[in-house]
Amino acid sequence: MAKTDYKTIDQYHQAFPADIVQRMQIIREIIHQVVPGVKETISYQVPCFKYHGYLIYYCAFTKHITISNPYSAAFWEHFKLDLEGYKVSKSAIQLPNDQPLPEKLIKKIIEFRKKENVAAAKTKKAG
What we know:
- This protein is α+β, with helices and mostly antiparallel strands and 127 residues long.
- It has one domain (9-120): Aspartate Aminotransferase, domain 1, CATH 3.90.1150.
- 41% of the residues lie in helices and 21% in strands.
- The chain has a 5-stranded antiparallel sheet.
- Helix 2 (18-34) crosses helix 4 (103-126).
């Protein structure tokens, strides 16, 4: 794989075909709808969104887009049924490019992660 040095999410998107960019852009828009004021950055050379800490990453591959984060045990328990049929690891969920993008699920995931980050920030501030 060629060495990259992306500085922005737009630069990252430019490296992919239009159909993949469209899918990533939908995810990006959902994130901004659910979390107004979210900060966009590049981390580990992939798109990253921060809100009271790391909220979510995404990255594109030929056959899928992965949304990732070091998800909590509570996250996995909450989404156990929703994620049946998806390939997952302890920090990643693969969304196949040959299937419709599960926009409602992505929104629910972002909402959950937002709540987790806000709660963690309050606990950290109180401690």
